[in-house]
């Protein structure tokens, strides 16, 4: 008996090419990374995030494509196969954390521990946990049921991690870069420093979840992706309470690392 179309779809979904090996090997090969396109993405994630997922033009090679669907159509995967974004983001984290250590740290050994914890725990470990959670939720609860004539598709774990990295970058700009320059004001006592600090965190966290929504909303086989916008409502509800009780997140996190 010939296999049905649906069974073919399931087989195709399971037989997607392995990408972790080549992906990891390219981390140490700068000449194979598209650095210009990575910076283009980073700029537009902060200014016009929909452009990153919508139809756009490669800034260097000058051809048009739809960022996410381009990978699926040409390489049979939704995720990036270029680790340049993660490598550059980690370097930015190292530089930014080093600046905090120079301003507020006590010793070189303390700085080394702080930088390592930020990269390994705050970014990589937290990112792996969040990406795994989103990967599980999307594949378990948000996928549309395919009919017998449509190939079954699933969210790749590496794509979920890509979405996290994209969403993390603007939050990094706000909470690592902008907050650093405003920190002399933010660490002061009083209502206004607490208000400004809370506003920075509200914007950063809300923008993170909005970009998370954009990353999954572009996938044609997912439904009810507005689920990823719900945490924004919770942040907006809780932020006035944090301001009223005088909680200053900047002071809290600086004291956590440098207190």
TrEMBL record:
One of its GO terms (cellular component) is Golgi membrane. It is a multi-pass membrane protein. The keyword RNA-binding does not apply. The keyword Membrane applies. It is found in: Membrane. Keywords: Membrane, Transmembrane, Transmembrane helix. The chain crosses the membrane at residues 84-103, 115-138, 158-178, 185-208, 228-247. It comes from the Eukaryota. Belongs to the unc-50 family. This is UNC-50 family protein. It comes from Eragrostis curvula (weeping love grass).
């Amino acid at each position: 008996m010939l296999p049905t179309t649906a069974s073919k779809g399931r087989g195709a979904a399971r037989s997607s090419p392995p990408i972790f090996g080549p992906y990891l090997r390219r981390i140490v090969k700068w000449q194979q990374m598209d650095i210009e396109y990575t910076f283009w993405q980073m700029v537009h994630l902060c200014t016009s995030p929909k452009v990153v997922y919508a139809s756009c033009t490669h800034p260097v090679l000058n051809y048009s494509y739809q960022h996410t669907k381009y990978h699926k159509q040409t390489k049979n995967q939704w995720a990036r196969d270029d680790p340049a974004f993660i490598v550059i983001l980690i370097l930015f984290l190292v530089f930014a954390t080093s600046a905090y250590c120079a301003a507020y740290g006590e010793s070189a050994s303390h700085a080394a521990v702080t930088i390592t914890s930020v990269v390994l725990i705050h970014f990589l470990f937290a990112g792996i946990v969040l990406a795994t959670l989103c990967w599980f939720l999307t594949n378990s609860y948000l996928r549309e049921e395919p009919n017998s004539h449509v190939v079954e598709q699933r969210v790749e774990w590496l794509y979920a991690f890509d979405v996290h990295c994209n969403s993390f970058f603007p939050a990094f700009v706000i909470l690592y870069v902008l907050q650093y320059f405003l920190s002399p004001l933010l660490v002061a006592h009083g209502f206004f420093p607490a208000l400004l600090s809370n506003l920075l965190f509200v914007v950063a966290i809300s923008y993170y979840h909005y970009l998370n929504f954009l990353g999954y909303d572009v996938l044609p086989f997912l439904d009810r992706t507005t689920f990823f916008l719900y945490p924004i409502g919770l942040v907006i509800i809780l932020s006035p309470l944090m301001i009223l009780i005088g909680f200053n997140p900047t002071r809290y996190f600086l004291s956590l690392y440098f207190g």
